[in-house]
Amino acid sequence: MASKLLQIKAISGHAGVAPGANMSRDYDVCKLVDTTTCIGCKACEVACLEWNGYDFQPTTFDNTYQTMPDTSWNYWNLIRFDEHVNEDGSFSWLMRKDQCMHCEDPGCLAACPADGAIVQYENGIVDFNQANCIGCQYCVTGCPFNIPKFNPTTKKVFKCTLCSDRVGAGLEPACIKACPTGCLHFGSKEDMKDLANKRATQLREHTAHQNAGVYDPEGVGGTHVIYVLHDINNPEKYGGLPKNPTVNPMVRLWKGPLKWIGGLGMIFGAVGIAFHYLRYGPKEAEIHPGGDRERN
Ligand code: SF4
Ligand code: SF4
């Protein structure tokens, strides 16, 4: 079961076809976060730490209910709290579960030069393999969601794995299991999109949230973590969720055309040296009248 649910689709820095690529996928997995029913209890934060074996870290109080100012290499799941003043002057908490979005077109994987440091499975999960990570942090610049975080001690980068170990064994992610309100759901992408669209329609038809909608950004090919937002037109209000995230074109350039141009340059250089050698032969020492030797 594990091998079927975690068939590899793409590998960072890997020449040739990824092992297991083009095998049939059972289904795309997806996590649905309904921000409109999140109560900010942070059970998902605790579950994430416990399942992945990390301890709680000291934090700083900066006038918010957030546990940490930001996610970190050993804190992959953070509920962001934003105070929002509505048009009628009333006040709302906007709470969003922040973690890796498991992009269909992951900028982290596109940017990574290390063979096998980042793996995308056929079911949509994007996973890091720290054993192969060289600590260059290109994945950090490639991610439009500011997710991969560097551990300065081990010089490796970490992020949410979407509990690939649990999912590979047919289980739901730990955060989903812990959520007490039903704000988190897990299933196939198709089912989660369906559920999310129904919830957004319900909000538009029966509440004051006329702009409710589903966040599944096309710029990264869609994501395997999707949100229902009260206001789909302003995702930035939810802890800086980017409106139109895309993979930085420079990442594509240096991994695409520039890489090929560099490779061609090396080939032409080697051919030039070979021709020069065949035409002029090896360098020989010249003897000057004074007896000095000079290389030409
Ligand atoms: S959110 Fe960032 S780290 Fe996660 S898959 Fe997308 S690009 Fe990679
Ligand atoms: S730091 Fe990021 S980009 Fe660099 S090797 Fe590790 S995973 Fe790949």
TrEMBL record:
Answer whether the UniProt record assigns the keyword Nucleotidyltransferase to this protein.
Answer: no
Q: What is its EC number?
A: 1.2.1.2
Q: What InterPro entries does the annotation carry?
A: 4Fe4S_Fe-S-bd (IPR017896), 4Fe4S_Fe_S_CS (IPR017900), FDH_Electron_Transfer_Unit (IPR051555), Formate_DH_bsu_Proteobacteria (IPR006470), Formate_DH_C_sf (IPR038384), Formate_DH_Fe-S_su (IPR014603), Formate_DH_TM (IPR015246)
Question: For binding [4Fe-4S] cluster 2, which residues are annotated in this chain's numbering?
Answer: 48, 160, 163, 175
Q: List, alphabetically, the GO terms of the cellular component aspect.
A: plasma membrane
Q: Which EC class is the enzyme in? A: oxidoreductase
> Where on the tree of life does the source sit, at the highest rank?
Bacteria
Q: Which residues bind [4Fe-4S] cluster 4?
A: 112, 133, 136, 139
Name one process (GO BP) from the record: formate oxidation
Localization recorded for this chain is: Cell membrane
**Which cofactors go with this protein?**
[4Fe-4S] cluster
Free-text cofactor note: Binds 4 [4Fe-4S] clusters per subunit.
Q: What is this protein called?
A: Formate dehydrogenase (Quinone-dependent) iron-sulfur subunit
